[in-house]
Automatic annotation (TrEMBL):
InterPro entries listed in its UniProt record: DEAD_box_RNA_helicase, Helicase_C-like, P-loop_NTPase
Protein's recorded name: DEAD-box helicase 49
Residues covered by region (Disordered): 171-218
Any one cellular-component term (Gene Ontology): cytosol
Species: Rousettus aegyptiacus
C-alpha cells in the first residue's frame, strides 16, 4: 500500500489471500507485469520464481534456515542475485547465527544518510495514512482470525500459543533491558576511567604538627 502511494506498482502475496488470488498475484509477478512482489514467508519456500534479482528482508529472520529460504529466491539456476536485510541493534545475534550457518560474513550495504533523512518525514506520514485505512478495514482483526485458523489446522491451541509468545516476549524484553543496563554501566565505568587518566595527580597536603607549651609545676 505504501509503495503504491509512492508510484511503485506492486503485487502482494500473503496467507490471508485465497489460493486463487495467490496464483494470480504470482503469475503477474513472474510475467513482469509487476516488478515488485511484497510477500510474507508464504513465498519463502516451495515457489519457483527463477527471475528474482533482489530480495529485501524487511526484518531479520529469527532462524538461519528462514533466511536461506527467503534469499533462495535469488540466484536460482546459477544466476546472480542480491539479498538485503534491514537490521536493528537488537538483531546482531541473529545476523551472527546466519553468518555461522551460511559460512559467510554479511557485508554492510551503505546508504546516503542525508537522502534517507530527506524523505523520512514523507514516508512516516504516508505510513500513518495506510495504518488508518487498515484500521478502518479491521485488517488486524482479520489477520488474527486467520492466524487462529492456521494454528488449529496445525493441531495447536491458539490460546496456549498466544500465552507462550507473550511469555517469550517478556523474557526477550527483560534480557534486552538487562543488556542495556550492562552496556550503560560499562560505558559509565569506561568514561570514569578515561576522566581519571586525564586529571593531573593531586598533591598530597603537607603534614603539619602543632605542639602546645607544657608548663611545669610552679
Amino acid at each position: 500500500m505504501m509503495l503504491r502511494k509512492f508510484s511503485f506498482p506492486t503485487v502482494a502475496l500473503h496467507s490471508m489471500m485465497k489460493q486463487k488470488e495467490r496464483f494470480a498475484a504470482l503469475a503477474k509477478f513472474k510475467s513482469s507485469i509487476y516488478r515488485i512482489l511484497i510477500a510474507t514467508d508464504v513465498a519463502s519456500r516451495g515457489l519457483d520464481i527463477p527471475t528474482v534479482q533482489v530480495v529485501i528482508n524487511h526484518n531479520t529472520p529469527g532462524l538461519p534456515k528462514i533466511y536461506i529460504h527467503r534469499v533462495g529466491r535469488t540466484a536460482r539456476a546459477g544466476r546472480q542475485g542480491q539479498a538485503i536485510t534491514l537490521v536493528t541493534q537488537y538483531d546482531i545475534h541473529l545476523v551472527h547465527a546466519i553468518e555461522e550457518q551460511i559460512k559467510k560474513k554479511l557485508e554492510e550495504y551503505s546508504v546516503e544518510e542525508a537522502e534517507v533523512l530527506q524523505i523520512l518525514t514523507q514516508v512516516n506520514v504516508v505510513r500513518r495514512e495506510c495504518e488508518i485505512k487498515l484500521e478502518a478495514a479491521n485488517f488486524d482483526e482479520k489477520k488474527e482470525i486467520n492466524k487462529r485458523k492456521q494454528l488449529i489446522l496445525e493441531g495447536k491451541d491458539p490460546d496456549l500459543e498466544a500465552k507462550r509468545k507473550a511469555e517469550l516476549a517478556k523474557i526477550k524484553q527483560k534480557n534486552r533491558r538487562f543488556k542495556e543496563q550492562v552496556e550503560h554501566t560499562l560505558q559509565r565505568q569506561k568514561a570514569n576511567r578515561a576522566g581519571q587518566r586525564g586529571r593531573p595527580p593531586r598533591a598530597r597536603p603537607e603534614a603539619h604538627s602543632a605542639s602546645a607549651p607544657i608548663q611545669g609545676p610552679a
